[in-house]
Fold:
Amino acid sequence: MFLKKYIVNNILKCIRINTELNSYHISTAILHQKTFTQFKNYCHGKAVVVCGAGPSLQKYKPIEGAVHIALNRAFLYDKVDFDFIFSQDFDGIRMVQEELVEYRKDRCIKLLGTQINGVPEKEIPESLAIRCDALRFNTDSYLQQNGYKSKFVLDIDSRAIGNMPNVGLSCMQFALYMNPSVLYIAGCDLTGSHFSQKNLQEKERKEEEHIMHNYWEVHAKKQIAKWEELKQFAQKHYPDTRLISVNPVGLRGVFEDLYQE
Structure:
């Protein structure tokens, strides 16, 4: 009797889980048709620059005519008028919410992702997305709790974006989807430091940098491996797109390197 009840309960549990997953898949497909389809081949023949908030971004000299995407708080870099802001983790924009809301209204497209079934405090509030008039997208956090296990996704107009351990890796799926002729990567230093920490006291800033530095010390090699995986993904699906690191630090030697000094 006990065994029969155990088996029935497990079957019901599996049915509930599969039903929930199917619901996520369907809702993601509907959402992403609205969010991403309009950007398919959007940058054909153009250059795209994905900008992280690493210290080397201060050395970046804006490439004329390129479409610029800011990762998290990188939009604070005032030498660039960003066309897109891409964020999927509330930690990356928590300290700059008001700046994000006010940034280039009606001129900058803000893409804010989800952490469904992920860490609750990393979930970007819907209320903030509404204030930003943002486009929303889902990541595969409801499938993978470990970003290193996520895979790069080609058809982001119908599937969840791979939730990578670095927002730059997640954003590259969107940048490649726009099919640019050249895709530059700037300010993605893989060091855990940021050029700007607005709204933080000095003690808080140092504590955050210390935590992030220790994280990158442990995960640097694993991060590089994911960037190498991205390179293979791009070569397979977008062989006509050149990938170039601008003033690279941690990514030195992974793609083509371009030094502006």
About this structure: Helices lie at 2-36, 97-102, 126-131, 167-177, 202-237.
